[in-house]
Amino acid sequence: MLRVTGTRLMVTRLSTVASVARTLQWQRVSVNVWTTRSECCVTRQWTRCYATAIRQQRRGSCGSRRPDLGLRSRWRSALAVGTAFGIFAYFALRRSHRAAESPDGATAGSRRDDLPDIRRKDIERHKDASTGVWMTYRDGVYDVTDFVAEHPGNKKILLAAGGAVDGFWDFYAIHHTPHVYRQLEELRIGNLHPEDAAQTPASNGSSSKAFSHEPRRAPVLQVHSARPFNAEPPSELLVDDFITPTTLFFVRNHLPVPAMVDSVTVDGVGVHRPVNMSVSEMKTRFEVITVTTAMQCAGNRRREMDDFRSVKGLQWGSAAIGNAEWTGVRLSDVLAYAGVREGDIEHVIFQGGDSDAEGTPYEASIPAAIALDPHRDVLLAFEMNGEPLAEDHGAPCRVIVPGFIGARQVKWLRRITASRAVSESHWQRADYKIVPDSFNWAHDDISEVMPIYEYPVQSAICEPANGSSLDADEDTVVVRGYSWSGGGRGILGVDVSVDEGVTWRAARLTQTPQGVGRQWAWTLFDVEAAIPSDRRGGRLDVMCRAVDTAHNSQPGDIAAIWNQRGLLHNACHRVTVHVPESH
Ligand code: HEM
Fold this sequence. Notes:
Blueprint: E1 2-4, E2 9-11, H1 14-23, H2 31-35, H3 39-59, H4 71-101, E3 117-118, H5 120-124, E4 127-128, E5 132-137, E6 140-143, H6 166-171, H7 178-185, E7 188-192, H8 194-197, H9 206-210, E8 222-225, E9 230-232, H10 235-238, E10 251-252, E11 264-268, E12 275-277, H11 279-285, E13 288-296, H12 302-308, E14 321-330, H13 331-338, E15 347-355, E16 361-367, H14 368-371, E17 379-384, E18 387-388, E19 398-400, E20 413-419, H15 426-429, E21 458-463, E22 476-484, E23 491-497, E24 505-506, E25 508-510, E26 523-530, E27 538-548, E28 573-579
Parallel strand pairs: 3-7, 11-20
Antiparallel strand pairs: 1-2, 4-5, 5-6, 6-7, 8-9, 9-10, 11-12, 13-14, 14-17, 15-16, 15-20, 17-18, 17-19, 21-22, 22-26, 23-24, 23-27, 25-26, 27-28
């Protein structure tokens, strides 16, 4: 990899260098030159590029004539354009560096004067690993070859190989975040040639139709992605109620909300009696129960992990969690009715009604031992907090798997399949997995990595809010937050520190009685702590850490659990507040 930080030019593969050089008709430029990690060396190459272009313009050359790149003519050209180019290059580079460093919706994919123009026909030739994979976004050209294996959306990215991502991102609008723009610009190799830019196909409007079932949402939600909708409430509001109001419950949609269909089928290995039933049939055929359980997105607190070291994914704060009362029928009853027996199957697959641009539905699976165990309280739920499910939460019926990450609790449930293997979906096989730093994306197989199911022990401070200012009249600070552990493990205690972890105080816990091993609901905690006098007029760090009933505690720092998808961030939580001088 050749990285030239001075110009923010990043070229990821030698083959790319060669291809760019070919594109620009630099056949005589030795690729060896490019491997030198010297900024001025590369700058010289770009100088040549401009020089050649200017020479061609003077000659009225259409570019089909190969420029003379012999040593003497190179120097003559460089001298001829030297001064003018220096001034021009300085301002051009400065402008494009700014765009490259912190691209936003306006600057991502905009032209950069420090990069070459590349013709569409050359981009179209780069469609697979043998040629390298290139694609465009607006006026930008990107080499994503090495990124494909690491792409959180897996092979989907190849749909845009050799072409434009713009239309795909109308649908997968989860990409329109500063975070993705930044990653994208790191892969930048050039500009789409101005003559080809006009031909980039516009959106055909199909994404608007796909998103025609989106419901109205509470304005209080902080939106991370509008399409598909992903949002969380302000964390201070989370601790006001033990049961999170539905309108404040975080929403994690991978795909557009589908049209409502009231039918769930059961099929697959060992199914002697295929089932196709509506919610009202479920209610009459099976016992209806209510389970109080927290649900947490596997990406909750990702933003903190990203602050430590960059990760890939939506920048969730600490409120991608909620605690609700879910009413429905036991999955174990439904599977028994269909004739499925333990021993026949290894996994149960859930298919949602939401599907991607190619019509592939969202899918996830859970181990059969969990699905068939009535004590695990896995539900086909049709009510949340005493009301029929809201559209954003899977109406009319969704799966609830207490103690598991949210991604396995499939919304808009259409189909349940008893199976010997896990779901084939990319969300099961390639995403929602944590790989070690040693994982080699080019050679190791992500589908061999264990999927995440249960959540580890977690706690977070919701009040005071990070970055807020305490009241000057107060000598104490009231700290409130939530705690939870996956797998039915309850919370034994939560400790809070206001002196950088030197001393800790036990917080008061608010819990609901649930059976041992079935403690699905969260625990709220609060404590009032004296503000250390030496903090007046400065900042105060407030920390919390929880211990679950299996005596697991939260890791002290992020380094040990950092992973590139930013999943399961449960390191000790810390907020920093300002303490004014007392009056
Ligand atoms: C070209 C550069 C691209 C970059 C830098 C990129 C980056 C990302 C990132 C960071 C995510 C994680 C989002 C999250 O879960 O929070 C993601 C997810 C995804 N991407 Fe891309 N992507 C690219 C191209 C594409 C293309 C061309 C497609 C489709 C044709 C695509 C389809 C998807 C899908 C389906 C997901 C999963 C969404 C989900 O599970 O919610 N991506 N991508």
